[in-house]
Amino acid sequence: MGVRGGFCILMMIASGAAAQTTQDVINGEGRFNWVMFNTVGPVSAVAGLVTAGWSTLIDVPPEYDTHWDGFGKRYGLRLTGIATSNTMEAGLGALWGEDPRYPRARDRSFGARVRNVVKYTFLARNDYGETVPAYARYAGIAGGNFLSNTWRPNSETTTGHTIGRIGLGFLGRMSSNALLEFWPDIRSRVFGDER
């Protein structure tokens, strides 16, 4: 099948995660799809290209240099960090009954939808449909960033750098929530796509 075929299959599986709603309890397959979509899905892939490109341009971390090899290392570094955080969130969330998926507020006002984006950056739904603190997300983002210090270049392993990455992790989640909230409406208005 090859790498390309395997990647295509993973993308097809992962694309199903975007269509799920939080009205149903997430199962193991749903958690796997969520991890895959949020790790190697199109939004994450593009974000990885942008951040790796920017980091290569400004030469951060400097151990990787400013060539294609450095770009690839930076892309891989981000990918492994995100995969670790997402897997931790999905796994701990399964134990604690937290759903990592973002619940849209599509029939509400713009301001209420923006508040929903922010709210579900730090909160999650549990198996009973209640809104609770997203402890699995906190552990996943923080734990994943501290754990990634074991394979990061030395210049990136300080406590300050790690805390900065944790903040960026929550900012990234908020951005992802905003995209999930508003992209279907934008797509519908611009492209006439009613999905």
Describe this structure in words.
Strands 1-2-3 form a three-stranded antiparallel β-sheet. It has helices at 2-18, 28-40, 42-58, 68-96, 110-122, 135-147, 159-191, and strands at 98-99, 123-126, 131-133. The longest helix has 33 residues, at 159-191. Mean pLDDT is 89; it is low at 1-22. It has one domain (2-191). It contains seven helices and three strands. The protein is 69% helix and 5% strand.
Question: In a few lines, what is going on in this structure?
Answer:
The protein is mainly alpha-helical and 195 residues long.
The main sheet orders its strands as: 1-2-3
Count of discrete domains: 1
Number of distinct helices? 7
State the oligomer. single chain
Q: What structural class do the secondary elements suggest? A: mainly alpha
- Cα radius of gyration in angstroms: 17 Å
Measured distance between first and last alpha carbons = 31 Å
Q: Give the biggest beta sheet.
A: 3 strands, antiparallel
Descriptive terms for the model:
disordered N terminus; 7 helices; mainly alpha; 3-stranded antiparallel sheet
List the helices and strands and how they pair.
Blueprint: H1 2-18, H2 28-40, H3 42-58, H4 68-96, E1 98-99, H5 110-122, E2 123-126, E3 131-133, H6 135-147, H7 159-191
Helix pairs in contact: 1-2, 2-3, 2-4, 3-4, 4-6, 5-7, 6-7
